[in-house]
Amino acid sequence: MKVLILSCKTGGGHDAAGFAVKEALEQKGHEAVMFDYLTLAGQKVSDTVGDVYVNTVKKMPHVFGAVYQIGMAASKIMRKSPVYYVNAKMGKYLKDYLETENFDAILMPHLYPAETITYMKRQGIKLPLAVAVMTDYTCIPFWEETECDYYVVAHEEMVAICVKRGIPEEKLLPLGIPVSGKFSRRADKDRARAYLHLPLEGVNYLLMGGSMGAGDLEKLTQQFCRTREEGEYLTVICGNNKKMFQKMKKKYKQDSFIFVVGKTRQMEVYMKACDMLYTKPGGLTSTEAAVSGIPIVHTAPIPGCETANKRFFVKHGLSIAPRTVEGQVKKGRELLRDREKAEAMQTAQQQVIPGDSAEKIVALLEEKREVTAENSNEMDILITRDSHKPSNSFMENSKK
């Protein structure tokens, strides 16, 4: 089976979900091709879209939140949004690409390519199986105007939300958000710490701002330093935010209890090595943490889908989310000291968040591909048989 995975550079979560399924496909012996589909129109197009998104989220999160709310309102009254028309322009590029390749399925962990696929379907262009993967614990604006064959959602509670928004229930599959199998594997904490050159003794807190290094990294680090107790360490991951990385690296270079990290491909190792995670409630990061089984303190969300993610996690006991920076640091310490409460959170994470979503998605693609192949074979047989039969119209005319 050959699968095309189309993502987009608006946050690292979409890529992470796509790579998780790619990994699972290749482990089963299938072929997977994944890329940012906007590059089909040129690297400049991809860079522009990504830069606008990232800069808005990092520098003007409330503007992003306002746009999200406008989108939610517009999705209730519009049959086709501006997002649809913009992404429809990608149809010609994707059509040309698909004509040079032969894929059995297209997987989309992002709304934008799903909008393009929808436009192409409405133009009568023949396409392989099209499966969308939602990477948040809600239904973001405009998914309802797409026409994919199936939609993989994060949890069974999302089914009712999506149906209310207009997506047919029979197309909704609550298989979870796919994460790499590395996060579900158990690892010895001491070995993980030694590998990352972190102190073997004491309590190590992990602070993250997602792939963009967004959120209150500086404020949380300052609060941790003000209230730090003996034997406590803090690892801060700045992601792609090079400016934040350089600033914090310089500021805390004399503090032996703070470890500042930039972009890393070893996130699963850090989650195994540390005792507690502070992170904004991104869909992928939160899922990776829950699958890893690390207690979570959710920090301030980027307004929009992250607000819904935080609400879902708190509701199911998968995280705590005090409103202030002071409360987040304090309550995180209290949670870690209360082993019964921390273990209850980890148990809830195991029960609510599946670690094998990527494998389930691969099984889905295999199953639907078989059905499609069987139907095609049956159609070929019927066509062959019909070609040897007298014309019905001739028989009917003879009777007349």
**Whole-number radius of gyration?**
24 Å
CATH architecture of the largest domain, please? 3-Layer(aba) Sandwich
The coarse silhouette is globular
Strand content: 5-15%
Largest sheet: 6 strands, parallel
* Helical stretch tally: 17
Instruction: Extract low-pLDDT stretches.
Output: 379-384, 387-400
Q: Give the overall pLDDT as a whole number.
A: 87
Order of helices and strands: EHEHHHHEHEEHEHEHEHEHEHEHHHHH
State the domain count: 2
| Total count of strands | 11
Q: How far is the first residue's CA from the last residue's CA?
A: 51 Å
Oligomer: single chain
Briefly note the structural class of the backbone.
Answer: alpha/beta
Domain Glycosyl transferase family: 229-350
Family: Belongs to the glycosyltransferase 28 family.
Domain Diacylglycerol glucosyltransferase N-terminal: 14-179
Pfam family, one: MGDG_synth
Question: How does this model look, in words?
Answer:
The protein is an alpha/beta fold and 400 residues long. The protein is built from 17 helices and 11 strands. It has helices at residues 12-27, 43-59, 61-75, 82-88, 91-100, 111-122, 157-165, 189-196, 217-227, 242-251, 267-273, 283-292, 305-315, 325-337, 339-352, 357-386, 392-399, and strands spanning 2-7, 31-36, 105-108, 129-133, 150-152, 172-173, 203-208, 232-237, 258-261, 276-279, 296-298. It has 2 domains: 2-178, 3-Layer(aba) Sandwich (Rossmann fold), CATH 3.40.50; 187-352, 3-Layer(aba) Sandwich (Rossmann fold), CATH 3.40.50.2000. Strand 1 (2-7), helix 1 (12-27) and strand 2 (31-36) form a beta-alpha-beta unit. Residues 379-384 and 387-400 have low confidence and may be disordered. Keywords: Glycosyltransferase, Transferase. Residues 229-350 form the Glycosyl transferase family domain. Belongs to the glycosyltransferase 28 family. It comes from Blautia hansenii.
